[in-house]
Amino acid sequence: MKYISTRGQAPALSFEEVLLTGMASDGGLYVPESLPTFSADEMREMAALDYPALARRIIEPFVADSIPADDLKTLIDDTYAEFRHTAVAPMVQIGANQWVLELFHGPTLAFKDFALQLLGRLLDYVLERRHQKVVIMGATSGDTGSAAIEGCKRCNNIDIFILHPHQRVSEVQRRQMTTVVGDNIHNLAVQGNFDDCQAMVKASFADKSFLPADRSLVAVNSINWARIMAQIVYYFYAGLALGAPARPVAFSVPTGNFGDIFAGYLARNMGLPVERLIIATNSNDVLHRVMTTSTYGRQPLEHTLSPSMDITVSSNFERLLFDLYDRDGAAIADLMQRFDAGDISFSEAAMTRAASLFSSHRVSDEETCAQIAATWQQCEYLLDPHSAIGVNAALNAGLAPEVPVITLATAHPAKFPDAVAKAGVVESPNLPLHLKDLFERRERCEVLPNTLADVQAFMARNLSA
Ligand SMILES: *Cc1c(COP(=O)(O)O)cnc(C)c1O
């Protein structure tokens, strides 16, 4: 399978090349040239598979020319063996035809483990074969950092450096990063804010001369294609469990960068009957504004109770736009160039297409707390603030009662104890057993001044041999 850029000017790449590349050289994002599809008969058979076997079935066509089937099986089996529920992604019913897909049974209690556990293994596998080592650099305000570190902790060919703003991430989130043991893992607490960290990452990708010539820099943010690919699997898993292909299902997805919900869109295009994809946002509602006004524009960031969805721009939305504009790379390049200068509007044809599958709903902090409380009172089920936004959007989507709605629960409530306490239902949710001693574990973290030179010098000094 070949991958092409949404802006039409970068060379087409193989899966292995895409895995090692972040953004395309023309500034676009890579997408598959075409998608594998599954017939109704095939899907009926797939409904009997366990999670790793289903993952193999769905992922194989995307990677077949880069990874032999037996090796892929090992990588996938190892990945999902890390999850602490035998179903990997279990479902819970919280209302008449309302379901919650629990995506938080991985090592860091958030759905990002589904993609980053696999990504680390895929990277290490191809690097070993190429006798190559790479450096992963990323900035985090919370979830992505810990999931990336957990995903790379056993990767001999990867040095990982994660920058976070010193004293500005929650204690649970910091400890989930700094207590992971491994010589190749480096937590850098930068004496600045998240934007400072992100600017340093951006500058380092633009000028890699601080690294030796044989070390390339790899991004693990949500524009990495392999992350999206891994996320397609649980849409099929949940949909098939609730009666697809015989009956269509809908999904409500707590959305930030549009990576997770884009995987749902791909599942639909691969054959899964999806009635609706609900974009659930917090008050950082750039996508809700797109859906309701056809205008894409930046607004100031708001800090909410659902910090993993606090974004001003949804980078993966470009991948959907590419399809909405008939895969016209020049049109996307033009749109994105104009977006750099200010607000842009989308064509009526593009928006009509989007509205035939997607709807959106914005949920405030007050509504988030009210939803956590309401779901608790109705069925003693505790939602984290991100998942509560998804459930609230699902209940307000106005779908026919016979359509099952599956809300993606993207994080475990114990990750966000403050929001849960604010909702007034339980004092403080318990961490799962494997993290019970999180507050006793030794932390490893380097506090660095807020300058690019200090950060890059630290990285250059701490590369593995
Ligand atoms: C990353 C994240 C999201 C948003 O996912 P996107 O793919 O960026 O849309 C939602 N909830 C949680 C808990 C997350 O960590």
TrEMBL record:
Obligatory cofactor(s): pyridoxal 5'-phosphate
Biological processes per GO annotation: threonine biosynthetic process
GO molecular function: pyridoxal phosphate binding; threonine synthase activity
Pathway: Amino-acid biosynthesis; L-threonine biosynthesis; L-threonine from L-aspartate: step 5/5
Enzyme Commission identifier(s): 4.2.3.1
Top-rank taxon: Bacteria
Catalytic activity: O-phospho-L-homoserine + H2O = L-threonine + phosphate
UniProt domain Tryptophan synthase beta chain-like PALP: residue ranges: 94-330
Similarity remark: Belongs to the threonine synthase family.
Name of the protein this chain belongs to: Threonine synthase
Organism (species): Parahaliea aestuarii
